Amino acid sequence: MMQPLNRILLTAVVLGTTGCQFFGSVDRDVAQKGYRGTAMEVNYVSRDQDAAMAAMAAKMPAILPPAGESPPGPLPWQNVQVLNDISVAEFNRTMIAMASWVAGGAGNCSYCHNLASFAADTYPDGKAIYTKAVARRMIQMTRNINSEWTEHVGNTGVTCYTCHVGKPLPNGLWFYTDENQILRHYLDGAGARVTSQTIAPSAANRSSVKQTEWTYALMISQSNSLGVNCTFCHNSRQFASWDQAPPQRVTAYAGIQMLRDVNTNYLAPLAPVYHPSRLGPKGDAPKAQCSTCHNGVYKPLYGFQMAKHYPAMWGTHTDWVTPLPPPFTTPPAPMPMDTVAVTTDSAAAGPSVRTP
After folding, report:
1. Which domains are delineated in the chain?
2. Closest CA to 316 of 85, 118, 102, 136
C-alpha cells in the first residue's frame, strides 16, 4: 500500500506536470500587476481573446455613416420627447441604429412604434406601447451614464448595444426575491465590508460568518461577470486594503454606485410601465448587475468605443478623444470603423484593450 506521503508527492508531481504542460503553452499571456511572488498577475489565453473579439466583431452592427454637421432641430415629427436636441439626419440615423441594437435588425420599427402613426404612444387597439416609453427612459439613462459616471465608463461610454447586444432583453437581468438577496447590493443593499476590527461581537462589530459568505458570493458573481480573477481589483497581500489595491478597485466601486443609481432611478420605477409579462414574481421591474453590461468581459465590447460615433447618446459628454494604442503582441481583431488591440504590457492592469 502506498504511504500517504508518497501518494501526496505523486499527486503533486502529476499536477505539476499537467500544469506545466497547460500553462507552458505558447498561447499563455501574463499581465503582471504587482511584485513577483504576490500572485498579482492576470493569466489569459491570447488565442481565445482573438477568437472572442473576432466573433464579437462579426455580430456587431456596422457603425452607420456620420450624419454631418447639420444643426439640431426643429424636428418635423410630433411627440418627440427625448431626442429633440439633435438634427433630423442624426435622429434618423439613431433610430436605425437603435433598431439594430435592440430590436434585432434595422427596419424593425414596429418594436417601439405604431406603424400607422409613429407619433402615437398606443397601438391601433388603444393599448400603450410600453417599449416606446421604456426606450425613452433608457436613452435618458444612457446619457446620464456617459455624462455623470465617467469614473466608471471612462472615455469608452455606453450605447443601447452595450447591454442589449442586438436583443430586446439584456443578459443578467434580475428581480427581487427576499431581503437577503445577494444582488440587492446593486439596488439598496448594505456594503460588502465584513472585516472585523475586534474579537468580541458588539454593536460596532456586526460581522459574521454569514455576512462573509454573502460577500464572497457577491465577489464571485462580479468576477464571473468580468471574466477576471480576484487580483484584477484586489491586492492578494491584503484584500481589504484600498491603499494597496489596483486602480480597478476604485473603478469597480464607481460601477457599483452607478448600478444603484441606474436601478433606483431608472429601472425600478418602470414597473408600472412594463407589460406584466416583463415583471418579476413580486411585480418588480427587471434590474441590472455587472454582467448586464460586461457579459463576461473585463471591458464591455472589449473596450470598443461605439458611443463616440452616436452623439444622441452623449448627454453632456462631448470629449471622445481616443486613447493612443499601446504595443500589442497579438494581431488586432477587425472592428467596424475601429481596431481593437490586446496588450500584455507589464505596466497594464490586466490584458488591456485600447482603441487606436
Report:
1. 172-294 (1.10.468.10)
2. 85
